[in-house]
């Protein structure tokens, strides 16, 4: 579809201003995070959980391998976002590759079982919105909290963040194996 000109993918840096390059990355991450939050809530409804999302939750103790452990249908639902986005949202090919790399690294960090972010970040006005291993580990252990993908916006707004998460996160040091 790209080669036939049916997508909005572009390869020349001059096609759009450089600020759009940065904006497009932020836009994709926010769109992806929003779609995933609601898809994730939907997949936790009992009837869908059993046949789609249960496979991922079989990892009670997460590891880097958990980031690749999904039911094929869930993989499809997660992967389809980018190909659909490029049909109408102009994205530089380099941005697409950078996002794919970011997706992989973020998923590995969040399932790594070891918190790599500083405990001070819990109250930093920007860093507190980032999801790390401790945040997603809570999801695997407690099921009904922390549904977000990259950011904590939706969990905060929808009141689905583990109630004592920030307090416990603050007590973490880099030596702890998540909470
Ligand atoms: Zn889940
Ligand atoms: Zn997970």
Description:
Keywords: Membrane, Oxidoreductase, Transmembrane, Transmembrane helix. The structure is a single chain. By secondary structure, the chain is mostly helical. It has one domain. Helices cover 51% and strands 2% of the residues. The chain has eight helices and two strands; from the N terminus they run E-H-H-H-H-E-H-H-H-H. It has helices spanning 18-43, 46-57, 72-79, 81-85, 93-111, 133-142, 153-157, 165-170, and strands spanning 9-10, 91-92. It has a two-stranded parallel sheet with strand order 1-2. The longest helix has 26 residues, at 18-43. The chain is globular, with a radius of gyration of 17 Å. The termini are far apart. The mean pLDDT is 91. The structure holds zinc ion (2 copies).
């Amino acid at each position: 579809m790209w080669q036939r000109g049916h997508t909005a993918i572009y390869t020349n840096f001059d096609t759009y201003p450089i600020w759009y390059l940065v904006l497009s990355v932020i836009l994709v991450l926010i769109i992806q995070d929003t779609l995933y939050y609601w898809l994730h809530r939907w997949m936790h409804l009992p009837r869908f959980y059993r046949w789609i999302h249960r496979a991922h939750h079989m990892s009670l103790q997460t590891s880097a391998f958990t980031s690749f452990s999904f039911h094929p249908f869930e993989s499809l639902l997660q992967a389809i976002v980018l190909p659909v986005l490029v049909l109408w949202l102009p994205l530089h090919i380099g941005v697409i590759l950078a996002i794919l790399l970011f997706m992989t690294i973020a998923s590995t960090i969040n399932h790594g079982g070891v918190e790599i972010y500083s405990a001070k970040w819990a109250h930093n006005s920007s860093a507190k919105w980032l999801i790390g291993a401790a945040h997603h580990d809570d999801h695997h252990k407690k099921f009904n909290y922390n549904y977000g993908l990259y950011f904590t916006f939706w969990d905060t707004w929808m009141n689905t963040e583990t109630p004592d998460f920030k307090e416990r996160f603050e007590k973490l040091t880099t030596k702890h194996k998540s909470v």
